[in-house]
Amino acid sequence: MNIRDKLKLYETTAPAQSTPQPATMPESLARAGGEVVTSNGETLWRFTERVPLDAIVPASADDGTVCPLRPYLRYNRHPDDLSLDTLVFLDLETTSLSIGTGNYPFVIGLGFVDGGSFVVEQYLLHDYRAESFLLAHIVPRLRSARALVTFNGKSFDVPLLKNRYRLSGVPGYPVDTPVIDLLFPCRRIFKSIYASCSLKSMEEKFLGIVRNDDIPGWMIPDVFFEFQRTGAIDCIPAVLLHNAIDVRSMASLLFALNDIYRGVADKNFTALETRALMNIAHGLYRVDRALFIDLVEFIGREVFGDRRLFKKYGAALKRTGQHDRAIELWREERSLYSLEELAKHFEHRARDYGHALAQCREAAVLIDAGVLRVGGDPAPAGIITWYAERFAKREKRLHRKAGDAEAT
Fold this sequence. Notes:
Blueprint: H1 3-8, H2 27-31, E1 34-39, E2 42-52, H3 70-75, E3 87-94, E4 105-114, E5 117-124, H4 131-143, E6 147-150, H5 153-168, E7 179-181, H6 183-190, H7 199-207, H8 220-230, H9 236-265, H10 274-284, H11 289-299, H12 307-319, H13 323-333, H14 336-349, H15 353-369, H16 381-407
Parallel strand pairs: 3-6, 6-7
Antiparallel strand pairs: 1-2, 2-5, 3-4, 4-5
Helix pairs in contact: 7-9, 10-11, 11-12, 12-13, 13-14, 14-15, 14-16, 15-16
């Protein structure tokens, strides 16, 4: 096989080209809000929906501050000066679940604020050959955004859209625009509360939105393929409605999440159940240690059941100079982790080598029993060995330091 034959193995077949659609909007799609957009002989089908802004964003969001979204933005590490009118909400309906070259976004939904309205602007790829025109047409809207808001967009929508711009050779996509992906805070807060953190689940369980007669997501690619094969448009309005609800829900979800973080910032901890507070606390550790400590102390003894949160709490106390409180915490818990932290304190800070050695001796009892804490279940041998080696090195060093201290 020569090199030319080998290269043919990597050739891909271009998607079947549909018969060009007429530059007129079918009546059923026109009733769904559709209009034909033409330029230089190119044609797009656009659908626009306007709803009052207060139907999407709760009145509580308007609290008179310069940026009512600041709590969410701050605690999720986004620029905290973004406002709703600088955001564009993005959602795609695609021909598959891959971000590969064969996947096309055949509905692009964009949500944005225009005066007192929330606008959902959707573009339907009625013909493969219209893709470049569609992508070029929405560039100004994308570039107007200081951030794109998505749900799972960092992993899917945005990489796919970038891929389509690159493959189509259409310039202008704002590659440096930040992405606010709402999936991550939803998982962070609700992962141990809801069985699923999908957008539909968040709508039903968190926002109280129930979709009636919504088209299932797995059916949507087939609607497009049938449309391309036969021109059947009966299910297109259902796909457009599905996409529009997605876009609207993201805006509502953003402000509902913001209300949660604003409550935390105001130390109104009673508004959330303990599991949600513990999940939020994990994210607060690196952003606001003082608020993190206040939240963990409100949670109380539940923190002892979350090893990662317990360790962060001790570290936060230590790093904010509250050493006495950290010592009290570690003494109460008496695990190998806490004993090591106490040994560190007495060795390096207090220079009390006797007390440091006492922690090592107590740790040796747990290590011999093969457990991480008093009354705990047997731990994996690898973890016990790891601690045994660390305490052995520390004990040897402490004996040397204690001998040096006595000699002087």
